[in-house]
Amino acid sequence: MTKRKFKKPVVARAHGSPTKGGSVPQPLKIMDLPKIPFTRLASLALCFTLAPSCMFLPSSGPSGSKILKQAGKDSGNPSYQLIPVNDQVLRSIATHSAKAPYLAASGRKSDDLFGRRGMERFGPVNPQTIAIGDVINVAIYETDSSLFGPSIAAGALAVSPMTPLPPQTVDQTGEISVPFVGRVRALGRRTGDVENDIRESLKMKTSDPQVVVTMADRKGGNLISIAGDVRNPSLVPVSLVGTKLIDAIAAAGGSVSAPYDTMVSVTRSNTTRSDTLQEVYNQPAKNISLKPGDTIVLRKRALTFLTFGSTGRVGSNPITVEDLSLSDAVAASGGPSDMQANPATIFVYRQEPVAVLQALGKTNLAGNGVTAPVIYQLDLQDPKGFFYANNFNVRDRDLIYYAPAGSNKVMKFMSLVNTFLAPALSGASAVSSAKILSE
């Protein structure tokens, strides 16, 4: 039996120019490569085996397909509604949410500090009356004869001289004193009522008397207190013609913060109701007439929105303008990552009033019956998506989520493979360079 002869393997020489001694650089032999530990090779083989699934890799959140699939299908009781942003959605939100564009529908736990919404529910107040401590002016006009002034000579031109009485403060008895009349009740009455009493008492003493009673100064108990984030916290009197909420805030120097992030609380008879200062400006019904004893407190309430998912800037972002559009919010927060996010699946999580969702034909809603969870989807791969984003306003506590792209896990997997191979490739490169330099 003849032995087979095996040819010695021929290793091709590397191309290159001869060195100064005339020799050609020798090729890198396999035995010269650094040895890769068996554990690293085993791990690398396992990675390639599991490459099709890649499910063990971390993720920044649910994929867009999972959000789309699960919407409205949670055991018969949907946990949320998914609504793509379009013209109809924008019109519905603008129609039903115009009264509260700056606040999340569900509010915050900290809202308990401000009380319930809707200060217009306080209702109308009774007309203001004279209080103890108020300063009253009384002026009396006479004809033909003068009871309070100099006598009118016979045949002289008939005039109606006016006699102003010294200003009088309503005393603790609630009365003022008028010459030739005596004590007149003023407390709890209007100036017209006091005028009638004085005129009736003077009819038998002077010819056709005319009486004018005016308020010189409100120093009585008809005061309201205004404090908090105003320039001049103070006591503000309620005028006889009535004092509106905006008037009182202006009298205290106005708010130190922007109207859209300033909460106004009015406490009356152990009941507190609150609204934003912007809502008070925009809705006349919230600019209520104040009542003596009311307490007004202004507080800055910083508005924010949150960003999560495939973005380089996960966190909380302030709402710094009155009407922050979704396009502004995306730009301010850094936007989706080019290498990780899917621009067709940008989601806005929000608690929306039920009326908005019902107008869009949504039924079987989750939530408390007043608000329901909703996820709005913005598709920036659609050219019209940028117009929608520019007309979709972000509210306080909105959560913007950038869903990862389908290739995101593949890229993460390749990055993981590169982590395993990088040391070996770097070592091989170093050995090759050293071999060439030693020739």
Quick overview of this protein structure:
The protein has helices at 38-50, 64-70, 87-96, 191-202, 245-251, 277-282, 326-332, 354-359, 385-391, 408-438; strands at 81-84, 116-117, 135-141, 162-164, 168-169, 175-178, 182-185, 210-217, 223-228, 234-237, 262-268, 271-276, 295-300, 304-309, 315-318, 341-353, 371-378, 399-404.
Description of the molecule:
- This protein has 439 residues and is α+β, with helices and mostly antiparallel strands.
- It is built from ten helices and 18 strands.
- Strands 1-17-16-18-14-15 form a six-stranded mixed sheet, sandwiched between helices. The protein has a six-stranded mixed sheet with strand order 2-12-11-13-9-10. Strands 3, 4, 5 and 8 form a four-stranded antiparallel sheet that branches.
- A hairpin with a 2-residue loop joins strand 11 and strand 12.
- The chain is elongated.
Shape: elongated
CATH class assignment of the largest domain: Alpha Beta
- How many domains would you count in the coordinates? 3
Strand order of the largest sheet: 1-17-16-18-14-15
Any idea what the CATH architecture of the largest domain is? Roll
Number of helices: 10
- H/E topology pattern: HHEHEEEEEEHEEEHEEHEEEHEHEHEH
Secondary structure: elements and pairs:
Blueprint lengths: L37 H13 L13 H7 L10 E4 L2 H10 L19 E2 L17 E7 L20 E3 L3 E2 L5 E4 L3 E4 L5 H12 L7 E8 L5 E6 L5 E4 L7 H7 L10 E7 L2 E6 H6 L12 E6 L3 E6 L5 E4 L7 H7 L8 E13 H6 L11 E8 L6 H7 L7 E6 L3 H31 L1
Parallel strand pairs: 1-17, 2-12, 9-13, 14-18
Antiparallel strand pairs: 3-4, 3-5, 3-8, 6-7, 9-10, 11-12, 11-13, 14-15, 16-17, 16-18
